Amino acid sequence: MSFKKFKILLSAFVCHPEKGSEEGIGWNWLKELSKEHEVYALISCFLDQEEPVRAAVEELSYRENIHLIFIPMPQGSNKIMSLFPILEFYYLCVEWQKQALAEAKKLLEKVDIDIIHHVTYGSWTIPSFLWQLPKPFVLGPVTGSQKVPLVGYLFLPPKAIVQELVRIAYFLWVRMTSVASREAVKKAKLVLCGNLETLSEISSIKKSGKSLFFLDVGVSYTSELAKASEQTTGGCNTSTSISLLWAGLIEPRKNFGLLLEALKILPSDIQWKLTVAGTGPLLTYWQDKVSRLGLHEKINFLGQIPYIEMSKCYQTSDIFVFPSLREGTGTVILEALANRLPVIALRLNGAATVLADDCGVLIEVRSKKQMINDFADAITSLSRDRDLRRKIGEKGYERVRSFYTWEKRGKQMSSLYQKVLDGIL
Fold it and tell me: Where does the Glycosyl transferase family domain lie (predicted)?
């Protein structure tokens, strides 16, 4: 299906071809949209992005469709803000967005842009100012309204509880005081929301225009991925010998403690091993605790794994475990499904939307004991039934291929652009 070629101004504060999370989201939108359209991308010089982005663009056959505009990060910060890292980062992001607006105004004097689209950072509380320009403005997919459920605080250490409460207070402050954030939502012709919690809040703010649910992450479907995932066995030699995989930051909200408690009560006939790919502020804490419990031979902490090498971890695992308490969606969920792994996650945020009952196991969030027991039961059931793992893995793979590849998302976005410009949305 072909689309009319538009000139798009894309705001991608973070954008990196060799990383996941927000950086990967920015890059994939740039890559996919430029297949069909001419894209002028505003990108920050944050995280040494410029060199890898320029090099990756040169490898694309449609590179003539891409125009890169790198904008330096602001220097210095407000003295009061510097006392609180989260507020200081917010301040610097907002200052960068102001610089992006100035650059965009210069661009519009030279180029007849059709539509403006802000993609990263993907929190609606970090405002874009590009809605002020005289062109249709699309915001998102954005998240930012998800929060840890009350029972989830029972899994958090005291310091993390304080941090979560500070985060809640911060977002309440932003929502009450940030005129720019609310105006970006109100002025956008279309706001795409990455989870249902954010859609509910955005819908209460936005009185005109449209707000739609549109997942904030995706996976790149390639022939290599298809071939590799076909080789994923989904099981070891015996039905009770199982390889579990955790991938992502090791921080309080990711809830490693729940998984560890579940593993401790698995039946004795389940011969399990857990691979932990990732790093974070709690890495040393959990390594020490695992050693004290005598589980160091069963749990292997790999540390940070380069993004392009993560496929090996998926392909040598049987089950992906994702007990996160607060998440937009989590790219790792889609990556696991794309590699035909059944996923066990809590029925929260994006996971509750992505994981249909036939391609994963969603754990209800009612009480601490119930969550631990149900997580252990899910691991046990999947460990004992290799055919069930394969069946769920196939369903998950088909779900991702049908709905969540970046290739399909690029085409969906092109269709949405056309509807916005035609006045349908």
Answer: 244-399
- How far apart, in Å, are the Cα atoms of 325 and each of 145, 156, 251, 350? 13, 10, 11, 11
* pLDDT exceeds cutoff 50 at 233: no
- Contact call for residues 175 and 184 (beta carbons, < 8 A): no
Q: Which of 304, 332, 321, 336 is nearest to 379 (CA)?
A: 321
Question: For 171-293, where are the E strands, in sequence order?
Answer: 190-193, 210-213, 241-247, 271-277
Cα separation, 332 vs 192, whole angstroms: 21
Domains of the chain: 7-149+178-218+406-421 (3.40.50.2000), 223-403 (3.40.50.2000)
Instruction: Report the DSSP pairing between strands 360-363 and 66-71.
Output: unpaired
Of 125, 105, 104, the closest CA to residue 170 belongs to 125
User: How many CB atoms sit inside 10 A of residue 372's CB?
Assistant: 22
For residues 127 and 142, the answer to whether their CB atoms sit within 8 Å is: no
124-171 pLDDT, tens per residue? Answer: 988 899 999 999 999 999 998 889 999 999 999 898 898 888 888 878
d(CA 162, CA 147): 14
Distance (Å) of CA 374 to CA 239, 240, 344, 402, 421? 20, 18, 10, 29, 48
Contact 378, 355 (CB under 8 A): no
Question: How far apart, in Å, are the Cα atoms of 205 and each of 137, 144, 186, 201, 423?
Answer: 16, 14, 7, 7, 21
Buried b (16+ CB within 10 A) or exposed e, 28-55: bbbbbbbbbbbbbbbbbebeebbebbee
Query: How far apart (Å, rounded) are the C-alpha atoms in residues 404 and 338?
Result: 9
CB atoms within 10 A of CB 245: 24
**CB-CB neighbours of 181 under 10 Å:** 21
71 φ/ψ angles, rounded to the nearest 5 degrees: -120, 125
CA 35 to chain centre: 22
Cα 330 to Cα 59, 119, 247, 348, 351, distances in angstroms: 28, 16, 10, 11, 8
End-to-end CA gap in the chain: 21
Q: Are strands 7-12 and 38-44 parallel, antiparallel or unpaired?
A: parallel
pLDDT in tens, 69-105: 999 988 765 555 555 566 677 788 889 999 999 999 9
% residues pLDDT > 70 (the chain): 92
DSSP SS3 for 201: helix
